[in-house]
Design brief:
515 residues, mainly alpha, two-stranded antiparallel sheet, 50% helix
Length: 515
């Protein structure tokens, strides 16, 4: 079903409430926010990616038996560190009890920690049980107060109420019986969206006071959360998913053909993307569309040398503006996009075009048929363009390659590592192409053409919408997405403003979108 600006949305059943298993970044950030940033956090089971997003996969997956063991060992190591001495304990608890008989502080500490970890107040039964762990274990021969505390906190962090975001909603008579998330569930959703972590006390206090029951109350907290440094983690997490950091991290290049390719260069390329978005949202507060034809980026010295721009006296990421005649323009000129969607020895206009279609324009590209014999790609006497032209001559291939290749060929002036070049197999590169019948000559032109695509903003909104809600946007979401897109355009396409609109929307506050 067409959504805003022709955005295609799949037909789907009415959304249902889900438990959301913590994504790996949510788990890691939550442990650090609860126990202190110095607490060691080992690797746990990888996230399931659905439609490019771990947050969507987390709504439909449970840990395997091996994953449960990883949670246990990781949490145990983190709590062992956090309760090793009084200094560490003070960074984790609201107060430090002096003995197992210090019931006032003990109860306060457990209740405050549990409220943040469970994203809601503990019941009296839960508080009694966890305090009982402290006193029972802490009073055993050879044990201590801190050992008892560690076991109690360990139990809280291994509970499903911590490892899952429990957001189920309940029918609201004041809203015509629609299923509505309560204030604590809204706080949980906001903390996941803005901080990729647990709520802080201020957000939970707002929930307890009923301030998150209204859009205006949510907006007030959203503005506060946008100003908190923790928001930068969520921006990086979203960008990593949108631009397929997992694929980039697994990208290998032939070391004989591309000796300048290194793991550190690959990491720098990903950080460049994160910093570009971070700058657009929080520093420049600029138009989202500027990211596609703008020349401002961020590099460390290794990436600066790779791009051919100025290095910094101190090897740290710094802001640079590409020269006016530079062929490397906008996000499509970023090394992470070019290298992440290419092969070990050559470029892949098909993969690059597929990325633009699916993640930036929200168009589905069908997978290749399993039984089809792919043409030989080892002929060194032809260019990639010539090879793909022959490939598209086959009607069986043209339906998909006719969508991906004309876009991806616009990036052919950049090799598989993202390095600028002018020749391919001894022939001058032709980087011209078309996007929806709009011609372009090279990547710089492509960025300008892409910026004019009416669906570009709505597609981005739908990706952030799906990531925040933990489910794919469907036809029932069209009115909500239409409204978000209208506000986005009216406010100058500023991502921060759109995020505030999103969390204050009915789609975020209710289980099902409004009809």
């Amino acid at each position: 079903m067409p959504g805003p600006a022709g955005l295609e949305l799949p037909v789907g059943n009415a959304p249902a409430a889900h438990l959301h298993k913590l994504t790996v970044p949510e788990f890691n950030n939550s442990l650090h926010d609860l126990l202190g940033t110095a607490a060691p956090v080992a690797a746990v089971e990888p996230d399931l990616m659905v439609n490019g997003f771990a947050t969507i996969g987390a709504s439909s997956v449970a840990p395997s038996p091996g994953g449960v063991e990883l949670y246990e060992s990781t949490i145990r190591a983190a709590t062992t560190f956090a309760f090793a001495d009084a200094t560490h304990v003070a960074s984790a608890l609201a107060c430090v009890p002096t003995a197992t008989t210090d019931m006032s502080c003990l109860t306060r500490a457990i209740a405050a920690f549990g409220r943040r970890a469970f994203r809601r107040p503990l019941t009296s039964e839960e508080t009694t049980r966890f305090v009982g762990y402290v006193t029972t274990i802490g009073n055993q021969p050879g044990s201590s107060l801190f050992i008892g505390l560690r076991h109690a906190i360990d139990a809280i962090l291994q509970s499903p109420y911590f490892l899952y975001r429990v957001e189920l909603g309940a029918p609201s008579a004041q809203d015509g019986g629609r299923s509505k998330y309560d204030g604590f569930e809204v706080a949980s959703r906001m903390a996941s969206t803005f901080w990729t972590s647990v709520p802080d006390d201020a957000l939970l206090d707002a929930a307890q006071q009923g301030a998150l029951d209204t859009p205006d109350g949510i907006r007030t907290q959203a503005q506060r959360m946008l100003a908190d440094p923790r928001v930068h983690r969520s921006v990086s997490f979203f960008v990593d998913q949108l631009f397929d950091a997992q694929r980039l991290s697994q990208s290998e290049k032939d070391p004989m053909m591309f000796p300048t390719w290194t793991d550190t260069l690959r990491d720098a390329m990903l950080q460049e993307l994160e910093l570009r978005f971070d700058n657009a949202i929080f520093t420049d507060k600029s138009d989202f569309l500027n990211l596609f034809d703008g020349r401002t980026t961020f590099v460390n010295n290794e990436l600066a040398r790779f791009y051919g721009v100025a290095e910094s006296p101190m090897d740290m990421f710094h802001r640079v503006d590409m020269p006016a005649d530079s062929p490397r323009v906008g996000l499509l000129g970023a090394g992470a996009v070019l290298a992440g969607h290419a092969l070990p020895q050559r470029t892949s206009p098909t993969a690059r075009g597929k990325f633009v279609n699916e993640m930036l324009l929200c168009r589905t590209v069908a997978p290749p048929p399993m039984a089809f014999p792919f043409p030989d790609a080892t002929d060194t006497n032809v260019t990639v363009r010539q090879r793909l032209t022959a490939h598209r001559a086959n009607p069986f291939c043209a339906s998909c390659h006719g969508v991906t290749d004309p876009i991806g060929l616009g990036m052919e002036n950049f090799d598989t590592t993202g390095k600028f070049r002018t020749m391919d197999n001894g022939a001058p590169i032709d980087a011209s192409g078309t996007l929806d019948n709009m011609p372009f000559n090279d990547l710089a032109d492509l960025g300008g053409v892409l910026r004019k695509e009416a669906v570009l903003g709505p597609c981005f909104i739908s990706k952030m919408y799906a990531s925040s809600l933990g489910r794919i946007a469907i036809n029932l979401d069209a009115p909500a997405l239409e409204q978000l897109a209208m506000h986005f355009t009216a406010a100058g396409n500023r991502i921060g403003d759109m995020l505030v609109d999103l969390v204050a929307s009915d789609s975020f506050r209710f289980v099902e979108p409004s009809k």
